[in-house]
Amino acid sequence: MASAQFSISGKIINQAGEALPGATISLVNLNRGAQTNVSGNYRFDNLPAGNYTLIATYIGYQSLTKTTALSSSETINFTLSTGVFSAEEVVVTATRAGKNSPTAFTNLSKKQLEKNNFGQDLPYLLNQTPSVVITSDAGAGIGYTGIRIRGSDASRVNVTINGIPYNDSESQGSYFVDLPDITSSINNIQVQRGVGTSTNGAGAFGGSINIQTTTRRDTGYADINNSVGSYGSVKNTINLGTGLLGGHFSVDGRLSRIKSDGYIDRASSQLKSFFVSGAYYGANSTLRANVFSGYERTYQAWNGVPDYIISNNNLPNHRTYNELGILPDGSYYKDQVDDYTQNHYQLLYDQKLSDKVSFSGALHYTKGKGYYEEYKTDAAVANYGLTPVVIGGDTIKNTDLARRRWLDNDFYGITYALKYQPQSNLNFTLGGAYNRYNGAHFGNIIYTAQSAGIPPNYEYYRDDAKKNDFNIFGRGEYKTGDVTLFADMQYRRIYYSFLGFDRNLNNVQQNATLNFFNPKVGVTYQLNDNNNIYASFAVGNHEPNRDDYTNSTPASRPKAENLKDFEAGYRTSSEAFRGGINLFYMLYKNQLILTGALNDVGAQIRNNVKDSYRAGIELDGRLQITRMLSWAATATVSTNKIKNYGQFLNNYDDGSQAFILLKKTDIAYSPSFIASSELSLAPFKGGEIAFISKYISRQYLDNTMNTNPGGFTSAGSNAFITDRLLKSYFVSDVRMRYNFSVKSVKNIGLGLQVNNVFSKKYEANGATYPDIEGGQVVNYNYYFPQATRNFMASVSLSF
């Protein structure tokens, strides 16, 4: 007779009776796990009779274990007590927003990330979060990618990994290409929009991406994942873990390789990475050590494709043309690459000091070293600090050469958080960090077509930079009745030493010191168990980046930026629907504005503007239409303006500059409408088909809204060429997943993602260099075309 099958279901709540959505429930005997829904409910079906052990866990609470001798379907509920946060959760309690925080945020679980992880860079996995725009230099999401939140680029988006800053200390950008397949070692992510809560590292002017890596898994596992797709794209990943050994130890590891030829010509990527984590769990303490590394070698594609090439349909590669590395004979320099290795070391410690006090701290060290190599034709030797030489009666003033521009940097420091919770409705956190950065920038000439008096591996420049970054913050929450009051105060001090121009235009070592105070206050009103409204006010300050300092003198050096961020919103959650609406008004003083121009390594040129703002409304929600069908969507409508903006255009006819004055103009790269949609159908157990869409409205490449100076006309008749803008685009993907198990394999996962299923031709990023020639405004526009229809397929095995 066949064995009877039963179920175990229940609800997980806290001591106040509140449901804990997203809590984890593990069925130890069968190595099965689940997460609670928005009402805190969970369920396991198809269980044979027998003895079972269940463990319920939730961030910020003590885990709870229950056992049962199952002979019929049972209901087992859990009430979790507030507990010490572990070292791997310090980032959550110290720098993250909670469910009642007056902050706009989105949480992404490991399961949500895994569904979309076919090998593309991390920004692509955040594409369905509100107010996000993503870009790819290579066009297919592998290699150099970018992300903007509320129109702010990556240098304005704070990124932390386990509470440790990831943004580059000098450029303030985050280069996820340096951590290939980090997604496979991530447990969860919180994306905050606006200033958000106090965090370590660069100031958040557009938002924050708060990453938590691998956390405790009590049973051993082995996962193998392989993906293959268009443009020679391949991803191979293996994850291994011991589970909990002797009740105290665990070790987890990952090894990854990603390769792609890219959609753009020669925009290839060769990426490798590993992640190793070891932990010790004591009765009142946790110690975790993380070591992870990434290596990338990518062919340069950061100049984009000229507009006149894109518009020429007679050229076979008119959308994929890459001019970088072209040699005099028309061939291409094979080593026109970016080659960089980044190693990370983290030691995370947590200690419960008493029932009311707990401490978490981290030591970290990051070592980065690499270069980008490029071929230069007919380069003037004087530009490399050399005097022209005479060889055989000829004066060698110019020569073809290959150069490497190096970055060798060290970043290390300490982060900490002390949490005090004297009563259930009151808590305080004292946190902060002290970090140091040493960066050596230098260049070598490794080849010359003619001798030109250049010795082998000649070093033609060196710039040593140092930066100290200290911050301390205090944060408190107090709940009285249905009202929760929130306050967060941060002091940040920065010291930066760099090689730059002094008042006499001599290039000498200089320094700058900045002091910032970043207060934040807010209030949340709980309408009922499923609905709340909130409002907040926050101040953020942001220092200029390396290029802002080194490409200026003390007289022209840009000022630090200041942001006053006003937010208000409404959140709701129920069995059928969860979502929210958020209003924001971000008032900037001295914002450093993108002009659309690029220097020779793709960095944006920026200037202070006195008054500018972003104002808008964000909506996001998920509707469970039927048991099998759900719909998630986001939308952002915004206005992004600069007041009294002036821009100069070089007039090559007479050597003068033409001036444009606009009383109110759009900020570059700031679409007024962003929307996303994911319609998901689960027709049978383990199966899913999702139709995913994204719409981005028109964006300008500079801050003039295509306005030309009086008296000048636009050159050409092709609107694509004359307009300094990115056209709006609507792109759709299809994702299919099927998961099943066999006796010896816990899970077999099959996946297929068809990107840009309707083969839309569009550009997601670009740059412009307008000037005046022959009495006309001439636009030199460069764009980054994104791949037409392409696919990635995956097979994963879990043991």
Could you characterize the architecture of this molecule?
The protein is mainly β and 799 residues long. It has two domains: 1-83, Immunoglobulin-like (Sandwich), CATH 2.60.40.10; 221-798, Beta Barrel (Maltoporin, Chain A). Helix content is 4%, strand content 61%. The chain has a 22-stranded antiparallel beta barrel. A five-stranded mixed sheet has the order 9-14-15-12-13. Strands 1, 4, 7 and 8 form a four-stranded mixed sheet that branches. The chain is globular and about 100 Å long. It starts with a strand and ends with a strand. Mean pLDDT is 90; it is low at 84-88, 596-604 and 716-721. It comes from Mucilaginibacter psychrotolerans. GO terms for molecular function: siderophore uptake transmembrane transporter activity. Residues 99-207 form the TonB-dependent receptor plug domain.
